[in-house]
């Protein structure tokens, strides 16, 4: 039997060599000549992480920093409070509408290039916001700033995915990244109130200039990373790009205007109809493309779908609470903008500490699924605790009621980000980040719109209570879905 076995082995070896030669000669030039990037050094990885965290902090900060400063902006530019509201909404609209295509762009041209373009655009548009002589120009600059931010967010997460191939180190890096974003969102009202009271609202934007320059300096000189671009350079998916932007812009605009003018008005209904039509065009186009911008098969992943849903709910809770309580503290409890901002300061500290010290370790010990379930359930309970907020309560009591929101919510975003980044290859990290963070921004926009509609022109406390209960129910549904359907111990 030895001789036949030797003959078989010899033939298999020859066949393997023949196939290897055939594969080598038949390989396309684009893949045959593509350079193979080495794993980054520890110093390079730390530098990339610093640049990503720095930029993501700016993106999160500018999403919330204008809230408390809005009355001062209205007085300075005399455009009316309804028009001034678009200083916030314009950023949100561009941010949410373009992020999905920005994530796909990151996978096409590289996360580093996309992130660099976003940083440059964000810094320049911040300067334009600071010097804007009219409300119309300020809103235009905020639209550009939101578009630049949409490039930065998925690319920053893709950079981290590529810089940290080791799962344990990547989880710790993601915890820092999420801490920066959560802390920025919580610190936004604090910074906005303090800067507006101490100097002028324009310095909210001017402070982005040295920060953006520092992030660019950190990014410069870093080498190309493994998985920085897709293996195949496909033709750009124009139909997918346009239809996704129209769908998300229509959806976000409908939420914003619906909250302000009513969801039954003609412009709102038209925007929702455009969003539905564009979504159908997007789904059909992506299913027929050989190289789609967003492969629809990615949504078959339970990790992808559930993290998008969880991100939607947790942003709805966080943005909705900050929006509601910012108004409640000033309009009902009659507190100053500075005091209102300071009341949110403990949230910043709690989120940062939990993200950095506990969240990643908790995922490593019990898995991302259970971490998300605990965080979502705790946040739902924290929403119900906020029903006890009263205008005559002392500041310390209000702070104690806010702490559970930040503590429980701080477990959700690191866990869902770790889960989704662990479920996709490095070359699809930008697309996955774009999907999850698009759902998060849509959740925030919807929450603010619905909350605004419920508290406008009526009993503020009743509208706030209805909103908090609704958010708690959605969070509970997300917790059950994640626990029952999400993949197991994602580490």
UniProtKB/TrEMBL annotation:
- Keywords assigned: Cell membrane, Membrane, Transmembrane, Transmembrane helix, Transport
Localization annotation: Cell membrane
Q: Which domain of life is it from?
A: Bacteria
Q: Which residues form the Major facilitator superfamily (MFS) profile domain?
A: 48-490
Membrane topology term reads: Multi-pass membrane protein
List where the protein spans the membrane.
53-73, 85-105, 117-137, 143-161, 173-195, 201-222, 234-256, 262-285, 306-329, 341-363, 370-389, 395-421, 442-461, 467-486
- CDD domains, alphabetically? MFS_MMR_MDR_like
In terms of InterPro entries, this protein maps to: EmrB-like (IPR004638), MFS (IPR011701), MFS_dom (IPR020846), MFS_trans_sf (IPR036259)
Q: Where would you say this protein principally sits, based on its record?
A: membrane
Q: Which family does this protein fall into?
A: Belongs to the major facilitator superfamily. EmrB family.
Q: What is this protein called?
A: DHA2 family efflux MFS transporter permease subunit
Q: Which organism is it from?
A: Catenulispora pinistramenti
Instruction: Read off the lineage from the record.
Output: Bacteria, Bacillati, Actinomycetota, Actinomycetes, Catenulisporales
């Amino acid at each position: 039997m030895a001789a036949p076995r030797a003959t078989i082995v010899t033939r298999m070896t020859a066949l393997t060599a023949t196939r290897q030669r055939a594969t080598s000669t038949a390989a396309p030039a684009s893949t045959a000549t593509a350079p193979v990037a080495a794993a980054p050094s520890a110093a390079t990885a730390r530098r990339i992480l610093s640049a990503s965290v720095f930029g993501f902090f700016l993106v999160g900060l500018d999403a919330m920093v204008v809230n408390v400063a809005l009355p001062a902006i209205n007085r300075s530019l005399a455009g009316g409070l309804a028009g001034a509201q678009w200083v916030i909404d314009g950023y949100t609209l561009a941010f949410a509408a373009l992020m999905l295509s920005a994530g796909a762009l990151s996978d096409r041209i590289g996360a580093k290039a996309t992130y660099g373009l976003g940083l440059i655009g964000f810094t320049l548009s911040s300067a334009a916001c600071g010097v804007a002589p009219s409300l119309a120009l300020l809103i235009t600059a905020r639209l550009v700033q939101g578009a630049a931010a949409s490039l930065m967010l998925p690319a920053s997460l893709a950079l981290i995915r590529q810089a940290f191939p080791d799962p344990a180190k990547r989880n710790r890096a993601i915890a820092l990244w999420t801490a920066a974003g959560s802390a920025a969102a919580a610190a936004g009202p604090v910074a906005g109130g303090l800067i507006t009271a101490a100097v002028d609202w324009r310095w909210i934007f001017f402070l982005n200039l040295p920060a953006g320059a520092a992030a660019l300096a950190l990014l410069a000189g870093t080498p190309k990373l493994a998985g920085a671009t897709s293996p195949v350079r496909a033709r750009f998916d124009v139909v997918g790009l346009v239809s996704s932007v129209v769908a998300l812009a229509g959806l976000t605009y409908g939420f914003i205007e619906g909250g302000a003018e009513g969801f039954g008005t003609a412009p709102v209904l038209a925007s929702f109809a455009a969003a539905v039509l564009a979504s159908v065009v997007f789904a059909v186009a992506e299913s027929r493309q050989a190289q789609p911008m967003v492969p629809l098969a990615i949504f078959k992943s339970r990790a992808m779908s559930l993290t998008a849903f969880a991100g939607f709910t947790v942003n709805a809770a966080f943005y909705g609470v900050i929006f509601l309580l910012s108004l409640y503290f000033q309009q009902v409890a009659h507190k100053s903008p500075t005091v209102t901002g300071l009341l949110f300061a403990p949230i910043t500290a709690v989120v940062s500490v939990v993200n950095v010290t506990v969240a990643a370790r908790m995922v490593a010990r019990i898995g991302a699924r259970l971490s998300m379930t605990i965080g979502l359930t705790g946040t739902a309970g924290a929403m119900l605790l906020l029903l006890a907020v009263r205008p005559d309560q002392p500041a310390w009591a209000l702070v104690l009621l806010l702490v559970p929101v930040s503590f429980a919510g701080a477990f959700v975003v690191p866990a869902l980000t770790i889960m989704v980044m662990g479920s996709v290859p490095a070359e699809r990290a930008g697309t996955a980040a774009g999907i999850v963070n698009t759902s998060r921004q849509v959740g925030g926009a919807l929450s603010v719109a619905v909350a605004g509609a419920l508290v406008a022109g009526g009993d503020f406390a009743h509208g706030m209570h209805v909103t908090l209960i609704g958010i708690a129910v959605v969070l509970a549904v997300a917790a059950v879905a994640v626990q029952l359907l999400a993949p197991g111990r994602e580490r």
